[in-house]
Here is the input.
Amino acid sequence: MVIDAIVASVAEGVDVDHFESGFLRGPRLRRRELRTILRVSQELLHGFRRLHFVGPCVTIFGSARIAEDEPAYIAARSVASLLGEQGFTIMTGGGPGIMEAGNRGARDVDATSVGCTIELPSEQSSNPYLDVEVAFEHFFIRKVMLVKYSYAFVVMQGGFGTGDEMFEALTLIQTGKIQQFPVVLMGVEYWTDLIEQLEQMVEASMISRSDLDLLLVTDDPAEAAAHIRHRAVIPFGLADRLRPLRLLGEPARASRNRRMRRRKGPSPAQG
Here is the structure.
């Protein structure tokens, strides 16, 4: 591709360490900044082309440190299966733990399973339950993809990364950058302190009560799936999926579940 050739040309003779860490160190030579612009454009285009036909999705966020026999893993797998039966593609970060559980739950019911993986200095392997895997170098581009194609978000137990992804989605909804998609927190006990903190934010007028209207906290996968159906499937009119155009060189995908797409209106990431 043209962008690939330009990136290679600009990068020639440039000594770079792990790309994102170098990029975030502050101002650099203009040639390096140009290289960043081109590589980011290349990565965005790659993501758009790989993921354009996978939706509509529900993204499941959660820790890579959850073992297969833990209740959170079992719950994530269950809710993914229920959502897959509704016709959703299940999207995760593609790694182990909760991400694996979500993709595995999709596979259990023959729903499409997508992983947006991240390249890290310490390698984290992708899980074996992915139909589509897209690897990203930049966290911020990966987060764009995890949000752009989704109509709902399920947040399981997790740490800094999970919290970052959750609040990113809530902020985009609050500010009208994306539509009022439902956010489900799975694990009442785990999220109790956070809910109390959110209530304090409401009392202090830092956020509005209405900002929490689409936030459901539950331990029940069936309740989570029903909430998403009520708040996403019905309001946004999901029907058959988009189809590739051969004229644009878009290959037909062997998508496991073709039951839904949006009938009309803006894409999910548009306000």
Q: What stands out?
A: DSSP finds nine helices and seven strands in the chain. The first helix runs from residue 2 to 11. Confidence is low (pLDDT under 50) at residues 5-17, 261-267.
